[in-house]
Amino acid sequence: MHARSLLTALQRNTLKAFRQSVPSPRIGDSQSPVRGRDAELALLDERFAELARGRGGIVCVEGAPGSGKSRLLVEAWGRAMRRELRVFQGGADPDGQFVPLGPLLDGLLTDSGTLFDVDRLRDLASASEQRFWLLQELQDRLEQAALDMPLVIALDDVQWLDDVTLLALRTLTARLTSHAILWLLAVRTNAAAPGVRATLDRLGQLGALRLELGPLTAEAVAEITEDVLGARPDAGTLKAAGRAEGVPLLLVELLRSMREEHSVVVEGDIARLAGDEVPARFQASVRLALDRLTPATREVVQTASAVGRTVTIGLLAELLGRPSASLIAPVQEALDAHLFVERDERLLFRHDLFREAVESSIPVAVHRALRRHAAEVLLARGAPVTEAAALLVDTAEAGDQRAVELLRAAAAELSASAPASAEQLSRRALELTAETAPEHPAVVAETMLLLWQTGQAGQARALAAAVLPGSMRPEAEARLRLGLARVSSQFDFTEAAEQARIGAALPDISEGVRAQLLALRCLNLSMIGDFEATSRAVAEALAAAAEGDDDAARATAIAVDSVVRFYRMEWQRAFELADEASSLADDIGFLHSLWVPEALWQAFLFNAEGRTDRALAESAAGIRETQKQGQAAAMGLWMSNRSRVLFDAGHLDDARAEAEATTALADEMGMGNFAEATALYTLLRVALHTNDREAVTTYAAQAERMVGDPAVLVRNVGSWLLALVADDVGAPDRAMELLDESFGTLALDGPSLASPDDPADMVVFVRMALRAGAAERAAAAVSLAERRADRNAGFPVLAAAAAHARGLLDNDLGQLLTAVELYDGIPRLLPRAAALEDAGIRLATRSAADAVPRLDRALDLYTEAGAERDAARVRCRLRAMGAPRRRTSAQRTSAVWPELTESEVAVIRLVAQGLTNRATAQRLGLSPHTVSSHLRRAFIKLDITSRVELAEIAAARRHGE
């Protein structure tokens, strides 16, 4: 339970007494006028007016400490409330950066009641696999709330947000762009934390409006001076006020100090400077304020400053060893002195600059002791260990075993949901741990895993090289290597295979651990593309799995064996092994499998065979099951599979939507490069076929990064995508250069172009090679396609691809017509259309009458697929033959929404009825990300930006219908 929920009845009554006796707010408090920010307030009023009309957005208020960011948010809150908008507000704490989602949840719990089951959300925030569902829960509830009334979500001190809240901010702002939600954020200028900068950059890409608060004008300084002093200032007073350099907080504090020290006197309606003793620095001003307090109040304020920005009465009482009731007078005095404000049964420093100034007055040893004591008190009160650890991270000393214990516990709690924060805590624990301490190897292991998890592979390797050899027992090191292999397999297949190899080679380790290491090694070797090594590793892993009686390792090894057989042209055996692996994985339960899940490979096989319906059914079942299991990373793999199946089937709009959803999920979850590479393959191929030049440029830049990957398989996919782009712009010679390495692996086991392999790509390669004049390469590709078809006679898709490739190479009309016939029973629009087009071109040299029907059919198929570039090419050929055809769009099923695809219509109809994205996804059997992708595309086509506009269009069209 959070510490703030543990206030006793006495403490609650005490705070009620505080509220009743606190005077009305004055300058610097929520009811004082805002000076010098007229333009900013006018802009906020415009945004509120837009919000009332259903259009949301993002406003980032940036400024130096004391520039008035928080005050502007308070004024915005008041103006929004007067417009009857629903407002939620919250703020981050410098000592709260290790408490997942705290600021956002706090912000969504005030003013208008509770939106969420808070305990459930806190549980979801603590595990990486649950982060996706946490974001879905937040999104769903915010959607529902925004459908009832426009929302303003105000978050202060964004520079101190924890990792999970930053993720939520990046994600929810993007997902909820169509809703009536205005995000109002305040952040310090030049916030340095990488996660904060990445978030601000992302918000900028989403169109966030930046309001930068600079120094106040001379006119505004004069107005504030008059407000504070109650009279018009003379020149001397204004000159003294100039020492604040236009910073509002410093100005108000300076003026208050001058007034209370009688450095200024009011004569008539003029405030005149009475002396030269004016505090030159803010800290000096705060020190003067402290000196004027009674000793008891000074002790309360200094103790609170050591604990953090906020503190409860109960915690203060326990730290000071006094009854809560005894603090009424000191706390009241601090409130009257404008050092504290009271909010939600907690005391807050009026500004962090005040807390920092007070904190600097405490001796270092006392400060350290106070924070250590506070950490223990918080733990005793049931606060999260992460909250206690935040108090120790910068004050604990070397050899402090209790501090090390707490930091390790906090890092473990955060490792899944906020690995960057966990890494900081673990690294600090390692710094405090002596090399001779018994726990040192374990702390090293924990830190290494977190370094890998946060992308600091070089530092992880250096730490391993310096510490691991001989420092751990073999079983413990083997388990560490297993963890490293699992983590690194998301980002670096080569590293994962090496970690698994080292771990499996350790002496005297358990058979079960060895089996899992070897299974992971063969899996990652297959992802690298080294199928000779993979084949040997499979045999080793199967033997180890038998000895260790480990069915999870056995299922993984069998699935990898299926991959090997597939690329060795033993398709029937590959299918049999895939069935066996899938059945075994199903028997042992999804969560115990190393290959997540084995059925995924089986779905890819169905797709390669051309059994699109079966492949789509498998992927739909996989998405449903992973949603039910709460396994977001596995769901991302299934979504990538579905995107590839939809592309291969020729459903380009749906394929793009699913691939976009996959990349969005990958960005949020930090998923590995397999799902991302599959989605990128789909996105770039769709962009080429639809002639989306901007998207081609964007995705080609991403493919460039793949060609530097240590895994040949990844390099080959990147090279293939870049070659397709080069060929598309009329540079087939450049395309062949890009494929030099890929062509060198053509005769080897494994994919040389796409991954998993697509038989139809061999036809594309042959056409590209012939355009480049590389006849030998084209012939080699045809020979490989024919060999594969001959060895797998029961798979018509291989025979169709081989006939098509041979027809292109030999300019053989008979082979091309054979390919057309074979493709006729295979539900793949683009290869079938390409075969018809090539046959039509060849027939045109003999008889236009024979060519036109086939070109017409090719045009129909390209149009059905949404392949505009290909359709335009065929229309051009038909026009040249004297048979012009009008440009048509893909077949639509709705006369009411003619500009949208069938999938987009299904989505917008439900959304227009008021369903949330999650409810729409459940109704249609899609992922929420896919719904978001369809919705975004529909909004672009309809030229709208909000759900209010969608509802208006839907109502108008229903009326017209």
Mind explaining what this structure looks like?
With 961 residues, the chain is mainly alpha-helical. The chain is 66% helix and 5% strand. The protein has 48 helices and eleven strands.
Structure characteristics:
961 residues, 48 helices, mainly alpha, disordered N terminus, five-stranded parallel beta sheet, three-stranded mixed beta sheet
How do the strands of the widest beta sheet line up side by side?
A: 2-3-4-1-5
Distance between the termini: 56 Å
> Helix coverage percent of residues?
55-70%
Global Rg: 33 Å
Shape: globular
**Poorly predicted ranges (pLDDT <50, ≥5 residues)?**
1-30
What is shown here, in short?
This protein is mainly alpha-helical and 961 residues long.
Protein topology:
Elements: H1 9-21, H2 38-52, E1 57-63, H3 69-82, E2 86-91, H4 102-107, H5 118-124, H6 128-148, E3 151-156, H7 163-175, E4 181-188, H8 194-205, E5 209-213, H9 218-229, E6 232-233, H10 235-241, H11 248-260, E7 264-267, E8 270-273, H12 282-291, H13 295-307, E9 310-311, H14 313-320, H15 328-336, E10 340-343, E11 346-349, H16 352-359, H17 364-380, H18 385-390, H19 401-414, H20 419-432, H21 440-453, H22 457-467, H23 474-488, H24 493-504, H25 511-528, H26 531-548, H27 551-567, H28 571-588, H29 598-609, H30 612-629, H31 632-649, H32 652-669, H33 673-690, H34 693-706, H35 712-728, H36 732-738, H37 740-744, H38 761-771, H39 775-791, H40 796-810, H41 813-823, H42 829-844, H43 848-865, H44 868-880, H45 902-912, H46 917-924, H47 928-942, H48 947-960
Parallel strand pairs: 1-4, 1-5, 2-3, 3-4, 6-8
Antiparallel strand pairs: 7-8, 9-11, 10-11
Helix pairs in contact: 2-3, 6-7, 7-8, 9-11, 11-12, 12-16, 13-15, 13-16, 19-20, 20-21, 21-22, 21-23, 23-24, 23-25, 24-25, 25-26, 25-27, 26-27, 27-28, 28-29, 29-30, 29-31, 30-31, 31-32, 31-33, 32-33, 32-47, 33-34, 33-35, 34-35, 35-36, 38-39, 38-40, 39-40, 40-41, 41-42, 42-43, 43-44, 45-46, 45-47, ...
